[in-house]
Amino acid sequence: MAMLMFKKILIANRGEIAVRLIRAVHDMDIQSLAIFATDDAHALHVRLASRSVNLQETGPNAYLHIAKIVETAKSENCDAIHPGYGFLSERADFAEACAQAGIAFIGPQPENLRLFGDKSRARELALSCKVPVMPGLNEAVSLQQVQVFFESQQGAGVMIKAIGGGGGRGMRAVFKSADLPAAYTRCVSEARAAFGVEGVYVERLMGRARHIEIQVLGDGTD
After folding, report:
1. Cα separation of 38 and 47, whole Å?
2. How many CA atoms, within 13 angstroms, populate the side-chain half-sphere of residue 192?
3. Distance CA 136, CA 160 (A)
4. How far apart are CA 197 and CA 49, in angstroms?
5. What SS3 class is residue 68?
6. How far apart are CA 105 and CA 189, in angstroms?
7. Quick check: 89 pLDDT over 70?
């Protein structure tokens, strides 16, 4: 289903991300539906949208309830959901729930999300394709495992990362062994709050790294 065929899109996010998406769909003469936590009732994205629905919950967790968001889209006659980034944007189960409800998910296919949304599996794929990656543990790790790995790096430092999600949330660079417990706890907490996924993994820290992304956009047609 091409973007131009959509009549009403639910924006499953908040803040600047939602504002940009709402403005974009309005430029295309498409109606927007904003969802919001009760404590976001006066947020800009709520006022800008064609229509807004209160999720009747507070805090970031409101934006992580798949069943409620999909049901809202159905009851409001939305034909698509745009997740923005963060929150549910890399959750394969969210994309699948949209498909089961007959609502287009504006994003990758569930099978791709399932693979690349799990950073440990993505690392394994890269290694199987002989793509070089930083040394690390390709699984959700405990604090003890992080501490053992840190010692093996002989002072190089490590990066603790959320297995799911992105956008820099649930990620900490650690240079001292004494800082590991706090960094680990913070990463787990951020990952849980931002993505609904608690697992973290660890890899060797690459100093002065450059972040390069290639964005690919498609309209769902061949």
Report:
1. 14
2. 7
3. 10
4. 29
5. helix
6. 27
7. yes
